[in-house]
Amino acid sequence: MARVGDGSATLTAAAAPVFLDEYTPGGTLVQTINLPTAVSSSNRILTAAGSATAELGLTRSADGHYLVLAGYGAAPGTPAVASSAATDVTRVIGLIGADGSIDTSTSTGSAFDGASIRAAATADGTSFYSVGSDGGVQYQALGSYAATQLNTAPLSVRSLNVAGGNLYVSTNLSPYVGLSQVGAGLPTAAGQTVTALPGFPGTTAGASPYGFYLADLSATVPGVDVAYVADDRIIGGGGVQKWSLVAGSWVLNGTIAGTVSTAVRGLSGSTSGTAVSLAASSSAGLFFITDNAGYNMAPSLTSLPSAVATAGPNTAFRGVAFAPVAAAPTIASFTPTMGGIGTAVTITGTNLTGATAVRIGTLDIPTFTVASATTITLVVPTTTSSISGPLTVVTPGGTATSSTNFNLVLATLASQALPELSIFPNPATDYVQIELPQASSLTVSLRDLVGRQVLAPVVLAAHQPLRLPASLAAGVYLLEIEQGATKAVRRIEKK
């Protein structure tokens, strides 16, 4: 939930601080993320006009991994920010990751000069579309300082989103009243045509659309086929409208009505089968809705339920979106592919930020460093086990497992336990004699230097020689000897 104001002063047209409040569907506050009110490194200030109800539209990226919103690079208290010149107050796009990280490095440059910026959207966090009270739809890359205007009409746009691989906008301007598509696919160049979706009001005055959610509920209709639209009218059609694409035209199935005190502007959704969960917001409240009716059916509810959360004094709710989810991690490679205790290992992959656990086979690595989203470093810890196996990284987004094994070289595990132990001959051809002063049985096994067991554990009686397998290649091996609770490891050579 995007919130403007910290409660300390009445909201006016001046810039006010912006917050993201995360709630459970039951209305319990999970956390609050503060957007910057001071410049820090490449991050800019992001505030909003306190009394501007059309601002702070909040969207979730099409891939589900980010939240996006837009505001002003002006300190709290800056007067009349929505009408300020872009040369005085730049407009800023904010990107928030699933881990709560904030990137406000993107400025729209000269776009929205003298106009408000209302909302922004992204497919995957690498580039943005933004809209406002003038300037049409703007496109730019993450971290850039200028935007490209994609269209010439409509210029005043209320909200936007990416769905089904296409870009959609909402406006109350004729002949685009309702929802429209911008170009085809995800456009990046000027000269795009904006086309009103057939069946929406178009040239009919009165509708007042803001946030929207597009879903694909019918297996027989290609692409998105159901639209939920927030309409902030407090009488006659206001609330959350449900539309379905039937025979090439959008049909109004019904409206989840608001009240005279509830002007709904924010809307977000999530689909599971044919059930749609919606989060809707007004300036004062947050509402959760479930529509199980499916494609081309009246919505399950006829009116909004009670708000699960309300805005406090001198604050206001604006846009709403479902929380982003972390991207699943991957492991592309690791180096080196073998080593012993103390070996430094570097894992390379994607989406490694926030890693909570790293393992080699079944060996937990107690200490590791997440150097970046693509790199983790670790040092093989002290262990008395011979561990070889794939590398595993666990993050909030899931678990990644390498396709190849890391082999723990056991030469570094050679133990000097049982110092009175003698082994001869060494080098050996077909047998070795293992002797201890105290005559007793021993359990012995043999491994190569990368931890593979080449001779399963066998019990030897006192003074009994160990026969080496005839198939064993010449080379150096590690002999593991156990007597009671004591374990020793010695190097032997097969000739």
Walk me through this protein's architecture.
- The structure is a single chain.
- The protein has 495 residues and is mainly β.
- It has 3 domains: 2-317, Neuraminidase (6 Propeller); 330-408, Immunoglobulins (Immunoglobulin-like, Sandwich), CATH 2.60.40.10; 411-494, Immunoglobulin-like (Sandwich), CATH 2.60.40.3080.
- It contains no helices and 41 strands.
- Strands 1, 2, 3, 4 and 25 form a 5-stranded antiparallel β-sheet that branches. A 5-stranded mixed β-sheet has the order 27-34-33-29-30, with no helix packed on it. Strands 5-6-7-8 form a 4-stranded antiparallel β-sheet, with no helix packed on it.
- Strand 11 and strand 12 form a beta hairpin.
- It is elongated and about 100 Å long.
Distance between the termini: 72 Å
Helix content: under 10%
The share of residues in extended strands comes to over 45%
Task: Describe the global form.
Answer: elongated
Going by CATH, the homologous superfamily of the largest domain would be: TolB, C-terminal domain
What is the name of the CATH class of the largest domain? Mainly Beta
The number of helical elements comes to 0
Q: Mind telling me the C-alpha Rg?
A: 32 Å
Query: If you consult CATH, what is the topology of the largest domain?
Result: Neuraminidase
Structural class, from helix and strand content?
Answer: mainly beta
Number of strands: 41
Q: How many domains, as an integer?
A: 3
Report on the biggest sheet.
5 strands, antiparallel
* Low-confidence regions: none
Round the mean pLDDT to the nearest integer and report it.
93
CATH architecture of the largest domain: 6 Propeller
